[in-house]
Amino acid sequence: MRIFALLITALLAANAAADPIRQTKGDFYDAFRQLDTDLPTANVYRTASGAPGPQYWQQRADHKIKVQLDESRRRISGSQTVTYTNNSPNPLRYIWLQLDQNRFADGSLNRMSETAADAAGRMTWKERETPDVLTYATLAAHQSYKDVEHGFEIGKVADGRGRDLPYTVVDTMMRIDLPQALKPGQRTEFSVAWSFNIINEARLGGRGGYEHWPENDTYIYFLAQWFPRLAAYTDYAGWQHKAFLGSGEFTLEFGDYEVEITVPSDHIVSATGELQNEADVLTATQRSRLREARKSDRPIFIVTPDEALENERDKASGTKTWVFKAENVRDFAWASSRKFIWDAMIHRQNDDRHPEVLAMSFYPVEAEPIWSKYSTHAVVHTMEVYTRFSFAYPYPTAQSVNTWKSGGMEYPMITFNGYRPEPFEAVEGETVADAPDKTWSRRVKYGLIGVIIHEIGHIYFPMTVNSDERQWTWMDEGINSFLDYIAALEWEEDYPAYRPHQSVLDIITDYMVSEDQVPIMTNSDSVLQLGPNAYSKPTAALIVLRETVMGRQLFDFAFKEYSQRWKFKRPTPADFFRTMEDASGIDLDWFWRGWFYSTDHVDIAINDVREYRVSSGDPDIEFPQDREDYAGKYPETLSQARNRQEGRETYLDRHPELADFYNEHDKFTPSNADRNAYQDLLDGLEDWERTALQRAIADNEYIYFIDFENIGGLVSPLPLLVTNADGSEDFITLPAEIWRRNYHSLTKLLIREQPLASIALDPRHETADADFSNNHYPRRLEKSRIELYKSADDTRNLMADMLQTLRKAKGGNDGSARKLPLAPKRVE
């Protein structure tokens, strides 16, 4: 087909009367409406550029804590003195503290609001929809709650002079009433004495607790959320005293800590901060090794595996007090065990305050040999990558502690991480020469490296860039998961960060098309599926933003600007959104609205591609070409062709005298009238129009109209791989702004020097497109393999089953396991 090139005047319809928020007529939707109408109004505390304002403030809470571990009772007791500084412009008549251990207490809001699905523990979303599920984990947790009373036991609460202060406990929060209002700029001192029973983390899953080895009655204690912590008082929310329900983590204040930890004398302690009394708690050999580690770029054992094993066998009866100091941290955590192996190495960085960081790992012999091989190296690698994207690691130590089977948790300078190898067991009756004591799966190896990268990364976000986790989980988990994804890919090529050879953009599509999702901006405790919502989807969003929307140069500059603006400060989502735009010069409101505020997904289809050439308009040139095009489009009728094959003669063949003008000239024969019309057209063109037409005829380029449809609703850039007829390829990325007038569908005009063979949309899988079957033109045949199906005989043979030998159950019973009598039905 051909079209005649004429001057086309585009008339844009004005839409000034349309309401910017709600369209009442027509189906226009402004996917590019500015986000400022939805974000908090800028003020003296937080500017419209996303930077802290000239009067930005945040509170401060300095702590001196003494705590003692009673291993025989699995209980800790402590006292703390807090110096609280009111940097806000408001007088405060009371102060709120977080009592996070109260989450486990009888009658807590967390336990009383727990649904049956919540009680079942970690399950897939489909498993959660299964009716009446009772798991072993649920039963074990129920029994643990029956056996041990949990929650804080508050002792004396007093002011700096030792006088009692009135207080009120509200679930996981405690309000201390001050004798007089604490004015702006003033500070006050108060103390709290407390104790609680440490939870069995394997049963209750509370981020901190203990792990027990019954065969030799040894423990690892990992204490988090273990002291009454100051609730945050902010310019945007006042007191952040929303009850702790488990998912929404913590909003905390910075301060200096001095902590004395008294534990059994054979324990090794890892904690936030720097050890102050090495000579009191370490042997001369351990101190010497520690000095060596501070110069080494490879891990050095401070406590060797053999020494840790020996330590387990001979339990000491006395105690030691370990003293740690930490400056400008928002929290404090620690771990203690006689089982700990300890290794360390130095990380050097370009930073005046902390040019050297001591990277350390603590783990039991059960974690060997994979932990000594990978853990401390993963700590150092994380700091190398994160520093490049944000700022130098801000503290003197970085620690990884093995505390459970899988998963992790983060605190300033210390992280709790899972994954251990499995003992090697040969098949019965076979021997394996030189068999290792332990092996590990691919999942364990990359799970270990991945969780350490993730949790050490959290020391940057949110332990330094101090976002409000109670409200916006994605601001720490999502941003950190994005960076740990980058760090994982820099650990080794083909790192299986999600699945082998699949990026997060391929994995997240299942969630984004599902009905079981809520916007990323949903409150932490209301998210249906925390993993994809708070971790994977924000990661995917930021990967798309960096690699496709903004480009690495602009993204990395803006992200680093955000990190440094809000280092040791408390940003909100608006501060992140505004900074990324402010520093890059890119309007991203459409991106935040689609990815963070909606549940739309990316699914763009190429519906049609039409090819044209510019027509000269000359009937002597165009009409013969029209005849050829017509013949190609409409072949000779089948009946006529078969008549000729049969030798059938037409009437005109038999009577040629009937032929006239029309038998010599078809409808594509140019006439003088056509030629005159062409000349009139030329005469009517202005000089520049005639020049443009002559240039187009000479160039003889190929013109394509490409129809795109937005099926998923989320506007997206359009990365196109254009394959030319000669086999060469061109890559073109159309920006997301191409959807600004119609986010449902659009037609793109491309003018090319050579004909196209095909067009592929998003061939590098860079936009999280959910359906690639509609991303090619012409349509591509999807190839796969099919397995033959064979039905299985599941008939029960009771006689044969009864003849099987009865195996005794592990744990010492006689193997006669019984179901619980839950009448009238039984739950397995």
Automatic annotation (TrEMBL):
For the keyword Endoplasmic reticulum, the answer is: no
Q: Which InterPro entries match?
A: Peptidase_M1_aminopeptidases (IPR050344), Peptidase_M1_dom (IPR014782), Peptidase_M4/M1_CTD_sf (IPR027268)
Molecular function in Gene Ontology: metalloaminopeptidase activity; peptide binding; zinc ion binding
Q: Which UniProt keywords apply?
A: Aminopeptidase, Hydrolase, Protease, Signal
Which N-terminal residues, if any, form the signal peptide? 1-18
Q: Name one Pfam family in it.
A: Peptidase_M1
Ribonucleoprotein listed as a keyword: no
Q: Peptidase M1 membrane alanine aminopeptidase domain spans which residues?
A: 377-595
* Segments for region (Disordered): 807-828
GO biological process annotations for this chain's record? Answer: peptide catabolic process
CC annotations in GO: cytoplasm; extracellular space; membrane
Q: Which SUPFAM superfamilies match?
A: Metalloproteases ('zincins'), catalytic domain (SSF55486)
Question: Which PANTHER family does the entry link to?
Answer: PROTEASE M1 ZINC METALLOPROTEASE, PUROMYCIN-SENSITIVE AMINOPEPTIDASE-RELATED
This one is known as: Aminopeptidase
